[in-house]
């Protein structure tokens, strides 16, 4: 039986696990049923273990780091993995690099499933930056003094030295210290609505949004809301995908890639 490892922690990772699990495919992705039905396969999803209450994917799940690229390579050999789909978050550059090294070391086919970034439209006032440090150093507090920060739990330390700026930070789990002196936390998980995001921006008197180009429908509403209110958005650009690794933008692309592997 062929064994597929999905490096997950994302909506796409869960959707792929569901699409490859025959009993769920018919219900969730009927258009793929005919292609997938004949293949019996073992699906393992891997999560880093960062989120206290993760949404668990279908199929087998393992949680925790592998111990660098060598540890992942050992795991691929020991578990006789036939293919790896790296469906991790676009900003999880470390595990993507490890996957590329481990796949090369073991000769395991590797695909990156990466959702497209957010799409800029007329009326957006985006200020792209290469890193969180650049967002803090170059743009705050010049661009605003009341910030909605939606960068996830990690990386808030880049803003810790900024006084004179009030941060409203939203993440699934509490952010890691050090934190800025004027800082409040909203624990929440998408999907979010444009109406809800507008209300949040107004209620908290936000004058700039700081976020990452994560992409995905679940969190795009804040950008629409910022556009509607004429607010600038400081947006951190994505790290590159490791050289030479094929990339697809959606679950269907990943399913077709796996089909072609046979
Ligand atoms: P990272 O910096 O790329 O990875 C750091 C280390 O965490 C890796 O070297 C690996 O440890 C372990 N790791 C990461 N993803 C793993 C996975 N799926 N399975 C097993 N081990 C994993 O990752 P991160 O930015 O901390 O993100 C951690 C996880 O959260 C990712 O799986 C990602 O999909 C998810 N996530 C991240 C973000 C974000 O903004 N970065 C947002 C939403 C979800 P070892 O070296 O010991 O193997």
Word description of this protein:
- With 262 residues, the protein is an alpha/beta fold.
- It has two domains: 137 residues, Rossmann fold, CATH 3.40.50; 111 residues, Rossmann fold (3-Layer(aba) Sandwich), CATH 3.40.50.
- It is built from nine helices and twelve strands.
- The strands form two sheets. Strands 3-2-1-4-5-12 form a six-stranded parallel beta sheet, with helices on both faces. A six-stranded parallel beta sheet has the order 6-11-10-7-8-9.
- Helix 7 packs across helix 8.
- The protein is elongated.
- The mean pLDDT is 93.
- NADP nicotinamide-adenine-dinucleotide phosphate (NAP) binds next to strand 2, helix 4 and helix 5.
- The site of NADP nicotinamide-adenine-dinucleotide phosphate has 23 residues, from strand 2, helix 4 and helix 5.
What labels would you give this structure?
262 residues, Rossmann fold, elongated, 6-stranded parallel beta sheet, 32% helix, binds NADP nicotinamide-adenine-dinucleotide phosphate, alpha/beta
Strand content: 15-25%
User: What is the number of independent domains?
Assistant: 2
Calculate the terminal CA-CA distance, rounded to whole Å: 12 Å
Largest sheet: 6 strands, parallel
Report the count of strand segments: 12
The set of bound ligands, ions and cofactors reads:
NADP nicotinamide-adenine-dinucleotide phosphate
Helix content: 25-40%
Any idea what the shape is? elongated
**Structural class of the helix and strand makeup?**
alpha/beta
**CATH architecture label of the largest domain:** 3-Layer(aba) Sandwich
């Amino acid at each position: 039986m062929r064994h597929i490892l999905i490096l997950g922690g994302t909506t796409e990772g869960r959707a792929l696990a569901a699409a490859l699990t025959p009993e769920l495919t018919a219900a969730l992705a009927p258009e793929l049923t005919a292609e997938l039905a004949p293949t019996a396969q073992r699906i393992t999803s891997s999560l880093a273990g960062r989120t206290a209450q993760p949404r668990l994917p279908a199929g087998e799940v393992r949680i925790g780091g592998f111990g660098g690229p060598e540890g992942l390579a050992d795991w691929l050999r020991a578990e006789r993995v036939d293919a790896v789909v790296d469906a991790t978050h676009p900003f999880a550059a470390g595990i993507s690099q490890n996957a590329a090294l481990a796949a090369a070391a073991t000769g395991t086919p590797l695909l990156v499933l990466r959702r497209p970034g957010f799409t800029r439209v007329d009326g957006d006032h985006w200020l792209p930056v290469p890193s969180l440090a650049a967002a803090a150093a170059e743009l705050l507090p010049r661009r605003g003094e009341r910030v909605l920060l939606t960068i996830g739990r990690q990386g808030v330390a880049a803003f810790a030295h900024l006084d004179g700026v009030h941060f409203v930070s939203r993440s699934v789990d509490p952010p890691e210290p050090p934190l800025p002196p004027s800082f409040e936390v909203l624990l929440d998980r998408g999907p979010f609505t444009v109406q809800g995001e507008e209300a949040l921006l107004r209620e908290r008197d936000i004058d700039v949004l700081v976020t990452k180009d994560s992409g995905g429908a679940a969190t795009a509403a804040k950008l629409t809301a910022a556009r509607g209110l004429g607010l600038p958005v400081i947006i951190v650009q994505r790290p590159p995908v490791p050289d030479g690794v094929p990339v697809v933008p959606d679950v269907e692309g990943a399913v077709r890639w796996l089909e072609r592997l046979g």
